[in-house]
Amino acid sequence: MYNEEAIQKTRDYMITTLSIDSSGHDHFHVDRVWRMAKKLAHEVGANTMVVELTALLHDISDYKLNGGDEKAGPEAAKLWIESIGIDKQIANNVADIIEKMSFKGAKVVEENMSIEGQVVQDADRLDAIGAIGIARAFAFGGAFGQRLHDPDIIPVLHENFEAYKKKKDGTTINHFFEKLLLLKDRMNTAPAKRIAEQRHKFMEMYLNNFMQECKGSI
Length: 218
Ligand code: ADP
Ligand code: NI
Hints:
With about 220 residues, the protein is an all-alpha fold.
């Protein structure tokens, strides 16, 4: 059953929790993912309560920002949902999606997910590509002391999650080749695939100009 008050409470909670982030995981990211997920859920007929709670809570404790703990996010989301009196079953569904939805490497097969999980994963990934995706990638790179670009460092298509997590000497431009340009073909739902096409083209144009400017040819 849809519970508007619980959604508002959760949104307020996430605004407070993520307000100081400067790595591209701030509450504006969460709001964009929430709005996109609502739209996709409506179009494909997914359960909106599960979709909205997951979208709002998906970055509550990201392993990339919390020192590498992948269980902390799903666990914190579950505790929050139970603390506001929502059904345990919904809390479990949300935690299960958060545990599975992250990108784990170019050569890693995606986990099977419920339609609600597919919707939130698509919404999160749409926010990682296009104009906003480009901005977020460089914000992340800056927050983690990563260089913009080094032509001597070749992108790596990671075989497993361990290798993806432990990568060193990464550059933000390489992140496009290691993840962001791969997302278009990994969208789950038809409406997300359509949006991803446009955003992907924009990233390609951007990278093309970036490389030409590096060479001094434009
Ligand atoms: P996911 O759970 O799939 O990792 P997030 O919502 O946590 O998705 O956001 C991931 C975003 O963080 C990326 O799309 C990118 O913008 C940024 N990011 C992650 N790793 C890097 C990196 N090594 N270099 C630049 N940006 C990165
Ligand atoms: Ni996210």
